Amino acid sequence: MAPRLVQNFRGTRALVIAANGGAIDVLDTTLVKLGLSVERPPVADGMVELNIQELRAEADILFIDGDLGIPLGFNGIADRLPPVPVIGIVGVEAPGRLKALMNHGATAFLRKPVHSGAVYTALFLGINQFLQRRDLEMQIEEHQQRRRRRRVVVKAIVLLMQRAGIDDEAAYTQLRRDSMRMRCSLEHYCEEYLNGRSTATVEPPRLVRRVASDRG
Predict the structure, then answer these.
(1) Confidence of residue 11 (pLDDT cuts 50, 70, 90)
(2) Which of 40, 86, 115, 139 is most buried, with most CB under 10 Å away?
(3) Does the pLDDT value for residue 152 go beyond 70?
(4) Geometric angle at alpha carbon 147, from 144 and 150, rounded to 5°
C-alpha cells in the first residue's frame, strides 16, 4: 500500500541551507505562512553546521541552495535516499550543480528568484516523492531479505529430512506448523532451528508417510 499523501505541512521544520539574499527571502516568509518553522544552519568558509544524525524523516525537510556547492554528510549517494526530504534551490542551471542536488537526494526544485506561489508545490512534490521512494525502498529491501532467507528454509528442510527420515513436503509442513505455533515467521524459525535453539516437533516417520499415502 502506497503511503498516504501529505498535504498539510504544519509542524514541519524547514532547514534552509542558503546564502542570505533577495533571491530566496520570500521562501522563509512563505514557509512560515504554511505552518513550518524555519532554521538557517550557519554557513561559513564553504562549511555548514548540520548534524545529519539528528534529522527526522517525519518532521524535517532540507532546502539546499545548489549555487553554494556545500557538501553534506550524505553527498554522493544518488542511488539511496537521504535521511529527510530535500528540495533543491536552483539559480544557475548548470548540469554539474543539478547533478550535485540530485546526489543530495533532491526530489523537487525551486528556481531563483523564489516565488511564493511555487513553494507549496515544491513541498508537496518533495515530501511525497520522498515518502513514496522510501516506501518502495523498504519493500525492495524486505523482498531481498526474504529471498536471502529462503536459503535458510531450504537448509532447515534438508536437515529435518535427514534427522527425521521424512520427505521434503512433510519437513516443510512441520517447520511451518512449528513456526506458527511459536508465532514467528518461517524464515526466523528455520534460523533458530539451524542454530539449535528450536526443535521441530516431528511426527514419527511411519505416521507421516501413511498420512501422505492416504492423501494420495
Answers:
(1) very high
(2) 86
(3) yes
(4) 150
If one counts every other C-beta atom within 10 angstroms of the C-beta of residue 157, the result is 21
What pLDDT score does 70 carry? 67
**C-alpha cell recorded at residue 47:** 562549511
- Separation of alpha carbons 156 and 154, rounded Å: 5
- CA dist 87 to 60, 106, 107, 119, 125, Å? 11, 5, 6, 10, 9
| Domains of the chain and CATH, by start | 13-139 (3.40.50.2300), 165-215 (no CATH)
Handedness of CA 140, 137, 53, 82 (dihedral sign): positive
Give the whole-angstrom CA distance, residue 81 versus residue 52: 13
Return the DSSP state at 166: -
Query: Within 13 Å and on the Cβ side, how many CA atoms surround 17?
Result: 26
Phi and psi based region of residue 45 (left: phi greater than 0; alpha: psi -120 to 50; beta: remaining): left
Give the list of residues 6+ apart from residue 15 with CB closer than 8 angstroms, or none.
Answer: 39, 40, 41, 50, 55, 60, 61, 62, 63
The pTM of this model reads: 0.68
